[in-house]
Write the structure tokens for this entry.
Amino acid sequence: MKLLRFGAAALVALTIAACDGKTNEAQVNPAPTDGVLTVGLLGDIGQPPDPDIYYANNGLAIVLNTYEGLVQYEDNIDTVKIAPRLATSWEVSADKKVYTFHLRSGVKFHDGTAFTSDAVKVSLQRRTDVKGGAAYMTAGVQSVDTSDPATAVVTLKEGNAAFLDYLASPFGPKMISPSALAANKGSDDAQTYLTTHDIGSGPYTLAAVQTGTKYELTQFDGYWGTKSPFTKVELPVYNDSSALELAFDKGDVSAIVAALPSSDLKKYETSAAVNSYLLPTLQSALVTLNPSGTFFKTAEARLAFLQSLDREKLIPQVLGDRSELATTLYAKGMIPDGADKQEINYKPEVLKAYAATLPAGTTMTIGYATGNPNAQQLATIVAAQMATLNIKATAQGYPTAQVFDWVNDPAKGPDAFFDGNNGPDGGNPYMWGHVFWDKSGGINYFGCDDPSVDADLNKAVLTGDNALFVSAATKYASSGCYLNFSYNKDWVVAQKWLTGVAESHNIGANELNFAKLGIA
Amino acid sequence: MIGFLTRRAGAAVAVLLILTAVVFVLQQYSPGDPVKAYLGANASPAAVAAERVTLHLDDPLVSRYGHYLSAAARGDLGTSYRTHRKVTADLGAFLPATFELVVVAFLFALLLGAVFAMLRTIAGTFVRGVLLVGATAPPFLLALGGIILFYAHLGWLPATGRGGNDDGFLLTHSLVTGDWAQFGDGLQHVVLPALVLAVAPAVSIGRILRASLQQTLSADHVRTARAKGLTEVAVFGRHVLRNSIGPGLSMAGLQLGFMFAGVVVVEQIFSWPGIGNYLAESIPAADYPAIAGVTVVLGAVYIVTNTVVDMIQALADPRIAL
């Protein structure tokens, strides 16, 4: 049996070795002549591509190319700036309660319905009614005045300086056709219908859905904006990154957006056959510490651990060029003058001194989400480094569902958690602070909370006061529960002939606007 | 026969009740919050808590199980937390792909198993060697090796997906309607995953059949048949194969059941849109309605398969009474 197993391994290894040379050759693949763009997905999109339901990353390209919001983040810049989309301009009242949007003319939905202020009202209402994960964005809307079809006046219950960011967010409310919604409403606000159709105004329509296998978009002839040469976009699903890479190398896939592990970065960065892009995002790698665990009960212990992380070595070693050392508490550039400075520097001696006071045999568990190779590598390396301090540390993977259950009972979680890539819904500091630091946010894994931080954030969002946002961040940093480990970029690999990649990407979206892509 | 089928139906109901009960107990005691899969990662605890009430996740286990059984009796297996569709609709969409993959793989397994057992030439020895080596390799390694060789290097076969735009019984439908282009495309897509799935069962079937054939070949009645001057083909066909096929059939039935359970890895790597892929994506998301649905289907398939095999065995060998 041992001989057979050896034979099996040898056969597969020989196959791989025999083929390896050929598949790694620098070969420029030809551009498609059939007008089909193929964007490979790693894993299925996970949820229906309904703009009021979809709250994940993998399938955002489908939502963002079939639907449009009133505003978006400006493409191809590395700062947060709101840009027009279906609204050409807007005014905000001094108290941040009334938002007046002047709507783009000549826009039609995919069913032929003209875009008017009525669509704004219906779209914001559906977001609230469906009660999806991002329904909080419209929860504060008091009314929408539609007396002028070309102008929508949105009045909020109280001031909200983040409201434009809610609308610009890739997860923000998208405009839907009121007549298509009414025709397909059913008993669930058209949720069933929108699993396989769309009712948006984007440059593409959802043509076919084969869950787990393939999604297909076709160009919308009546689109108001620029059209690309791609009349059809196919998004095949690959469950294995090696298979996806093979398809890309052969030219069967035109582009891969933020799906490949960082360990493959060098291979494509140095290849003359393809283009590799590192594009700005609001994403970061994060470290979260568990105050309910045995090891990190005190802020002293938590801060000592954070100072023991040699980020200047770990980032290039594990994350490569797609990441850089984070020096601020919020996302890069979120606070314009960088006043949210992160004061955690590499001082391993602090943890060494602290570890010396611990009883012999003290253990620590460092967690990561299964399926995230970058976080796994970081956790494994750091766990190994702990051994030099006589701390027995173990790196352990956890399924996503389990990670999100810790907040209900943080004692069940690991002592520390490495998040390879995470980010806020949008570019306003409130959206970062609330989601990561507030116990009522979505990604405060261990419920590490400081009510004064929440109070600062809740007050700051009313007016957009950056000083208060900085105050909240500084207070939370002193808890030692959190470290902004690195700023991450979106890594896109594309065939040589594909143009407009950087121009079709914006800091909030983490996806490409297919209408802006072209052929060299 | 009616008594046999009634007994099997009763056993099937009991097995399915136990399987679903196990899934519910696992759901109760497993760590993990499925509502995040339903609402999205950034959903607030308040939204999650509200949705837990809507989905009855905070109800007592017995009450939830009771509701599940009551709904299941009406053909409703609940709604998937991940796809937001009825589990029955998901199963209806994914099961045909798995069914066709397993059927093709089973045909490969029978063919290769027969070659393994019967071919007594140098070519037969070579096939046996390749199958034995293949059967000892982990399926994911075999699949990746196959993709690299047949897709990336030789370009003979596609790497992933099912081909065509029909997500139902693609091969069957295109065959019946005479859509040869679609049929050819579907066949090209199914060959590699089916072969990977078939290798290990082929060896199991082949080994049992070979041992059974060897035993029968040395039996008295075979010696008598040869002494009577029957040709070797007639001896083999009439007196050896029929008497030896019982254990092979029994093993084939067992392997068919295992194939349905073993499609998870193969469907994952080849992005095959079947229930194995559906199950693999449902587990990390703690999508228990989907997991329970697949469990029910796999349990039912396993029972039906074994029942059919028992019936075929009885037909092939009159000594076996049902």
